[in-house]
Write a structure and sequence with these properties.
By secondary structure, the chain is an alpha+beta fold. The longest helix has about 60 residues. Strand 60 and strand 61 form a beta hairpin. The protein is globular. It starts with a strand and ends with a helix. It has a 9-stranded mixed beta sheet with strand order 42-43-45-48-47-46-49-50-44. Strands 14, 15, 16, 17, 18, 19 and 23 form a 7-stranded mixed beta sheet that branches. A 7-stranded antiparallel beta sheet has the order 60-61-64-63-62-65-66.
Length: about 1550
């Protein structure tokens, strides 16, 4: 039977969609696609996703339906029912007044009829529009009109639910749609917007015939809601199983947003009419006190006969309302759901009466399959190679893949009872092999008695049974399901080897042994009982030692003895007792608390979880009460305490068993230390995030439950407040974040003082601690705050220490007679002082003191005022007068503040003028004399320093020019050329990167016959030369046809005619002649100088196409060598990371002249072995030269380049994935650009760390290793950082030390202009090699395109009677060097797969300018004030000019090309580029320009003679495009 089904999007109690599963679904649908493929994003919220076998992926979002291929490239977009508009516009239907979870305008998306013999696939879509309309379209061509449609098929409410499945009953049968929906909602505001027919308001489930033109349902029937539709049901899924249709759902109150009942499964027959077969409630509430009444997602794993559901408890909107047990994944057996589905109905009007019991009997999930999680949203299950795989989506966008397990992992069950109790339908107990197996793995499985399946139950497992049928004998027999034929039994005394009993079975009976209950058998302590069945046997050992010592029934039977009820004592099993009082199992023992631990021999069981926390073993009763803590991190915890009673009475065999809710494995942990009778300690291992059930087992006995334990994620910090404190410490610091309740302690890490433990007070979301005292010589010190979890230290952020606050005095003002106001005056600083941090005490009179309560802090321009008040006093004025000092306790800082001294106002007024005159005169004289001397001394010192610096720099520059030699690498590996497609697109669209992807579609698999009729007609029309030239001229006359439009049109035309280069060349000739006609009226020397017309851009593109081979074969290698050599020279000297300026450059604007002294440091670099580069011949110990002024990031780059040069292959990791570590003896120091030791300059600017900052010397060992986590991309530093160029305020300070004092102050840019010359000398030979490869003639032949076009220009000059040779020279220069070569020289990224830095761009601009100067006819008149960019190559330009003239003459002297030769060349180039581009896209873009100026073009064609046929063809093309638009969703 062929089936297509669709799951409705999950409906959680807050907005969420199953988007984490999109990657999973697409990966399953298109094998071979990786997770790193491009991601397609919808403009509106995604409502439904469906996958077709042959036609790709269908996504419904808003009112739009998109068809994508398996690489997520859009094939087609259309709006619902061909409405006008586009998919990026919002839907006109207003959203609900109160947003509901999972709102969507798309309700069904079902591909079906795929693969049916002789039938094409169809796509059924359902929308909220049109009162819940539905339509069917051909799957392969959505642009065709709908085949069938209908209204009121799905829910018309965006927040309502719909689930459906399409099926047929056999070959030739019609296809039917079984659909369940929320047709009516209780809100009045909703009904006014969407009001279904009265008959539909009570409908829950319906079956519709999809073959009819309109989806009519009268004769197929429907299932109505119970009670006339008073409640609302939210349907989550629909699927077929075992000839029935199932609909998972849950009752939902759309007004309050709460679930009104239990999640359930409705079942109807797979038939042409609705036959209700019952409903079953589902219970997935394990681990949550309120249960989980919301069903978020559903998935049927058909191969297992298992249904998976994600359930959730009610929560608020934010994550703070969620607990670790909010959601859960539960697995149910479909066979049990089918069996438990009752015909009596609670939610539907069924044929049977309504269910009478208050609480429905709920189906329980498969015992070990529940997985508890804080935020699951969706599930998808499948079976791959006999292994079940579950994909789970979470609310934070994660995709979890549950560990692959076999469909049945039978061998893990060690006994028959454990095997059958697992209830796995694939497993059973094989008697002949005595183990749990698949049926096919069991010897002679056709013998049903040799293999027990789960239907038999664990009670049918064969077990050796000892009983007394009479007082005179004890009977040993075998109970359970086993073949009675040919069996024998033996009971043997282990101590003596004597057989106590031996027997054989009678026909069709099981063997039994009878042992007399005489005194001689009471001494038998250990016996072996064996039952033999031909090829296999079952045996068990019984130990009857010390039976008489037990006083309680449970303890007696737990050791293997028997309990005689009438005598109320424990007896040897072979002792006489009344058969009715003879107990050998626990059930009759009323005093037993638990069942005994199953035996570990054949027939025994395994671990069983129990609810009680008491257990008995060997007569001792142990109890457990609690476990602390109840939350630990995923790293585990070494000191978990369990409390209880009688722990010291147990032996050392105490274990904790942890059973995860998301895994089938158990962790068994032995006790670390029994502290006393009531406390013991365990050390728990690491684990994944989940909740675990915990129980304690004493001496191999039963496991006593102690509750649950949650493994949660590691703590994470988000904020430290305040982030600045004083060095005396004591301020209250608060850290905000999450999961702080699992940390062991908090640590302050200082570079010199090491780790300092601090006392913290933590809850889940914040930690508070008192800042420790940190006395240091530095004014500013940064320390790291770290969290210790086990032995792992987690960075939490930095805390800055500044100098202690400085108080300048205080004032006392009596407010009233009972209140005193004290104002403490403090210098301004960056501290955030709170009421908790400060205590103020006022001393007055004879050392009396008063406490002053803090009020507020006010910051002024000069000082900060701390206001406090003393209340409840008398004689405030006298206290104010007698006050002596104020004692301030600020954290750990304690100091006394003296009162501000205030002189008598009268004396002050008299003495002030006199004092001012004296002071002013004295100061003026002193300052003048001092300044004169100081100025003279400083000027002399500065002149000496400047002279010394100038001498040194000039001498160093001269020596460098004469001695320095750059080791140019001749062999630099394979040149990383771009392929032709990307080279062409980057030259065609240098500023429009957005066009690249639309032309790079793989055209090799394109069907040539599938070309659109309208595009074919347009292609034919463009091949009409007269028409095309007329169109171009008409477009260029339009005022709003901008220069950008002209360039784009020329590039689109180049791509459209890529395979017709002969025709394109003829168009180029015509347009060039026309341009010459326009230029002849003005100055012909300006022709082709700018890109202001279509033909000028067309010429650039034509040169790029025709010279791509010459560029790759002749010019590419020297050009790449130039870029590489230039990079090598730049990196030889200091490069400022922030500004990208360098000491070695060709461009004065990029010259780093504020450079400090630097030196080379040779490092011994050791690369850590990684799987990405695990080759035996890779050299991992490399010597690398760096500069002491390099940042750590720059050192990384040089180390990576050295590894590549040494081994010929990259290291295998990205720069942001590695760390550098300095190794000194046994100590290691991680190297970072910014850390706690970074120097902080004025205004808070941080200086980046360098090799010199860490004082790394020659020969130091640096280790390269992979980061553990938190990979970050390349850091872009802000204005708050600096490297080599220091802020102006710091330029006068001694940053480098005393020996460099004053160095930065006297830097003069012109001192370093020799570095430009040094760089030029270093690359000179490479540059000349590049220039001569461009203006050379390989094999005395010019490239066809150059020879052809230069001859064309010469011919046009002759035709126009132009005798000035300079005009033709300028034409050739403008057409080739200016339009093509300069563009290539300035943009190496057009040719190679490399990244062009801003500095390289500046240097290449200088080279390009020198290149163009070589082609100029104007003699340069340069003076000493000319720009350095011109002066740098001034001596070389005359030589280059002569070579260029010879180049032009050599081309002119070559024999002309015949038309046949040129045509053959163009034809070959056309064939090379077939299927490189999507010409249809280019034609579509050309048509957009034509239709935009259609009237103007049509009028021009009407006025031109001979273009009547072209006019008709144009009108025909427009008709074809208009018809195509009508059939297409726009």
């Amino acid at each position: 039977m062929e089936v297509s089904r669709r799951r409705a999007p999950p409906r959680p109690p807050r907005p969420a969609a199953p988007l984490p599963l999109l990657a999973c679904l697409l990966a399953l649908a298109a094998p071979g696609r990786g997770a790193d493929e491009p991601v397609w994003r919808a403009e509106q919220a995604i409502g439904a996703i469906a996958v077709s076998r042959a036609d790709g992926v269908f996504v419904a979002s808003g009112s739009c339906l998109d068809q994508l291929d398996y690489s997520l490239e859009r094939r087609l977009s259309r709006l619902y029912r061909d409405r006008a508009g586009n998919c990026t516009e919002p839907v006109s239907l207003a959203p609900p007044a109160r947003p509901r979870p999972g709102s969507s305008f798309s309700k069904l998306l079902l591909p079906y009829r795929e693969g049916a013999a002789g039938l094409g696939g169809l796509l059924l879509t359902g929308w909220t529009f049109g009162r819940g309309a539905c339509e069917v379209r051909p799957l392969g061509n959505l642009s065709l009109s709908s085949l069938r449609n209908g209204t009121e098929v799905v829910s018309c409410h965006p927040q309502g639910s719909t689930a459906g499945v399409v099926f047929r009953l056999g070959q030739g049968s019609p296809w039917y749609l079984a659909v369940a929906a929320t047709y009516a909602l209780p809100e009045t505001e909703t009904s006014s917007r969407c009001n279904p027919a009265a008959s539909d308001r009570q409908t829950a489930i319906a079956i519709k015939n999809t073959e009819r033109r309109s989806f009519d349902t009268d004769e197929l029937g429907r299932l109505k809601l119970h009670g006339g539709g008073a409640g609302s049901l939210h349907f989550v899924d629909a699927f077929l199983w075992n000839a029935s249709v199932y609909f998972p759902y849950y009752p939902y109150n759309y007004t309050s947003g709460h679930a009104a009942g239990w999640p359930s499964m409705a079942r109807i027959a797979q038939s042409v009419e609705v036959k209700f077969q019952g409903q079953a409630a589902l219970d997935c509430g394990h681990g949550h006190p309120d249960g989980r009444r919301l069903l978020l997602s559903s998935s049927l794993v058909e191969a297992l006969g298992v249904w998976a559901g994600v359930f959730s408890a009610a929560t608020g909107e934010g994550p703070e309302r969620r607990s670790p047990a909010t959601t859960a994944l539960c697995l149910f057996r479909m066979s049990e759901i089918q069996a438990r589905a009752k015909n009596c109905s609670r939610d539907f009007e069924g044929p049977e009466p309504s269910c009478k019991e208050d609480q429905p009997e709920k189906v329980q999930p498969i015992a070990p399959s529940t997985m508890i999680h804080s935020d699951l949203t969706s599930v998808y299950g499948t079976v791959v190679m006999n292994r079940a795989v579950l994909f789970l989506g979470t609310g934070d966008g994660q995709l979890l893949k549950v560990r692959r397990v076999r469909v049945a992992n039978c061998h893990k069950h060690k006994s028959c009872s454990e095997c059958l109790a697992a209830a796995d339908p694939h497993c059973g107990w094989c008697h002949s092999l005595q183990r749990c197996t698949f049926k096919d793995d069991c010897v002679h499985p056709e013998n049903s008695e040799n293999w027990l399946d789960i239907s038999s139950g664990a009670k049918m497992c064969p077990q050796i049974h000892i009983s007394q049928r009479s007082r005179d004998k004890t009977t040993v027999t075998l109970v359970g399901s086993v073949s009675p034929r040919h069996s024998g039994c033996v009971v043997k005394n282990v101590d003596t080897g004597r057989e106590l009993c031996k027997g054989k079975s009678a026909p069709n009976e099981t063997c039994t042994c009878s042992i007399p209950t005489t005194a001689s058998y009471k001494d038998v302590l250990v016996v072996d009982v064996t039952f033999s069945f031909g090829s296999w046997h079952l045996s068990k050992r019984f130990n009857f030692t010390n039976c008489s010592s037990f006083r309680q029934c449970p303890a007696c039977i737990g050791t293997g003895c028997a309990w005689c009820k009438s005598e109320r004592k424990c007896i040897h099993p072979f002792t006489a007792c009344s058969p009715s009082d003879y107990y050998r199992n626990q059930e009759p023992c009323q005093a037993a608390v638990e069942k005994p631990a199953p035996s570990k021999t054949a027939g025994g069981g395994g671990f069983e979880g129990i609810k009680t926390n008491r257990t008995t073993r060997g007569g001792q009763v142990f109890s457990v009460k609690s476990i602390e803590p109840q939350k630990i991190s995923t790293l585990g915890k070494s000191n978990v305490i369990v409390t209880g009673a009688n722990f010291t009475r147990a032996s050392d065999n105490i274990v904790m068993i942890l059973k995860g809710t998301s895994t089938c494995d158990k962790d068994v942990v032995r006790v670390s230390h029994v502290l006393n009778d009531t406390h013991m300690k365990f050390s728990l291992p690491s684990s994944r995030k989940e909740m675990k059930d915990v129980c304690i087992q004493f001496d191999g006995g039963n496991c006593s439950s102690v509750g649950s334990l949650s493994y949660i994620a590691l703590p994470r910090c988000s904020l430290i407040y305040p982030a600045t404190t004083w060095i005396s410490g004591g301020q209250n610091i608060t850290i905000m974040g999450r999961n702080f309740d699992v940390i062991d302690n908090l640590i302050i890490s200082h570079e010199l003082k090491g780790n300092i433990n601090v006392s913290e007070q933590c809850v889940a979301t914040n930690c508070s601690f008192s800042a420790p005292t940190l006395k240091t010589s530095k004014v500013r010190t940064n320390v790291m705050v770290k969290l210790r979890v086990q032995e792992t230290y987690l960075d939490c952020g930095s805390l800055q220490y500044l100098e202690d606050p400085r108080f300048t005095g205080y004032r006392v003002d009596p407010e009233v007679d009972t209140e005193l106001e004290v104002k403490l005056l403090k210098e301004n600083d960056n501290f955030n002082i709170s009421k908790k941090d400060i205590e103020i005490t006022l001393f007055h009179g004879e050392n009396k003191q008063l406490n002053c309560s803090f009020e507020n802090i006010t910051r002024n321009q000069d000082l900060t005022t701390i206001l406090c008040k003393v209340k409840g006093i008398r004689a405030a004025s006298s206290i104010a007068t007698s006050s002596k000092r104020v004692h301030v306790k600020l954290g750990n800082l304690e100091l006394d503040v003296e009162r501000e001294s205030v002189a008598s106002p009268l004396y002050f007024l008299i003495g002030l003028p006199i004092l001012l005159v004296i002071v002013i005169f004295a100061v003026a004289v002193g300052v003048t004399r001092h300044k004169s001397k100081e100025l003279s001394r400083k000027q002399s010192q500065q002149l000496e320093l400047l002279e010394s610096e100038l001498r040194k720099e000039i001498r160093d520059g001269f020596a460098e020019l004469q001695m320095d030699k750059l080791d140019v690498v001749d062999s630099f590996g394979t040149v990383p050329f771009l392929d032709y497609k990307h080279f062409a697109l980057r030259t065609f669209f240098p500023e429009s990167g957005g066009f690249t992807h639309i032309f790079t579609e793989d055209m090799h698999n394109r069907d040539a016959n599938a070309k659109n009729e309208s595009l074919t007609a347009l292609d034919a029309l463009i091949c009409n030369k007269s028409f095309l030239v007329t169109v171009i001229h008409t477009l260029e006359k339009q005022k709003n046809f901008s220069v950008k439009d002209r360039c784009l049109f020329a590039s689109f035309l180049t791509i459209a005619l890529q395979t017709k280069l002969v025709y394109l060349t003829s168009i180029l000739e015509v347009l060039t002649r026309d341009l010459m006609e326009q230029s002849s009226n003005m100055q012909p020397k300006l022709m082709l100088r700018r890109t202001e017309s279509v033909v000028e851009k067309l010429l650039t593109n034509w040169m790029s196409v025709c010279l791509s081979g010459f560029l790759r074969e002749t010019v590419g290698e020297p050009f790449y060598l130039l870029v590489t050599t230039l990079n090598q020279k730049i990196n030889k000297g200091p490069v400022d990371v922030i500004t990208c300026k360098a000491l070695y450059t060709l461009n004065e604007d990029w010259l780093l002249w504020q450079v400090p002294e630097f030196s080379t440091v040779a490092l011994n670099v050791v690369f850590e072995k990684i799987p990405e580069n695990d080759s035996a011949d890779v050299c991992r110990n490399i010597s690398v030269n760096v500069l002491d002024c390099d940042t750590i990031g720059q050192a990384k780059e040089k180390i990576f380049q050295a590894f590549l040069s040494k081994n010929g292959s990259p290291y295998g990791l990205q720069l942001n994935e590695i760390c550098l570590e300095l190794q000194v003896g046994t100590r290691q120091k991680e190297l970072l650009d910014i850390d706690s030791s970074s120097v902080i300059l004025e205004d808070g600017i941080t200086k980046l760390n360098t090799i010199g900052h860490y004082e790394i010397s020659n020969g130091s060992t640096i280790k390269v290793f992979k980061k553990i986590a938190n990979f970050t991309s390349d850091v872009e530093y802000s204005d708050d950082h600096c490297h080599l160029i220091l802020p102006d305020s710091e330029a006068f300070q001694d940053v480098q030390g005393k020996r460099h004092r004053g160095k930065h102050k006297f830097k003069v840019k012109e001192m370093y202009l020799t570095k430009l010359l040094s760089t030029k000398v270093a690359i000179h030979s490479v540059l000349e090699k590049l220039f001569r490869s461009i203006w050379s003639l390989p094999n005395s032949r010019a490239p066809f395109a150059i020879k052809y076009f230069f001859d064309f220009l010469d011919a046009q000059a002759e035709n126009k009677k132009i005798t000035d040779p300079d005009v033709v020279h300028i034409w050739k220069t403008n057409s080739l060097p200016l339009r093509f070569w300069v563009n290539i020289l300035k943009n190496p990224q057009f040719v190679f797969d490399i990244k062009k830095t801003p500095h390289i761009d500046g240097c290449l601009s200088v080279i390009a300018q020198a290149f163009m100067d070589a082609f100029s006819l104007t003699e340069q008149q340069l003076g000493k004030e000319a720009p350095t960019n011109k002066l740098l190559y001034a001596k070389d330009i005359p030589t280059y000019k002569e070579e260029v003239k010879s180049y032009y003459k050599a081309i002119r002297d070559l024999p002309p090309l015949s038309p046949l030769e040129m045509e053959e060349f163009l034809t070959q180039e056309s064939k090379k580029h077939e299927n490189e581009f999507n010409e249809e896209v280019a034609l579509t873009e050309i048509y957009k320009y034509i239709v935009k100026y259609f009237d103007e073009i049509l009028n021009k064609l009407e006025r031109e003679r001979g273009l009547e046929e072209a006019q008709k063809q144009l009108l025909h093309v427009k008709v074809l495009f208009d018809e195509k638009k009508k059939c297409k969703w726009m």
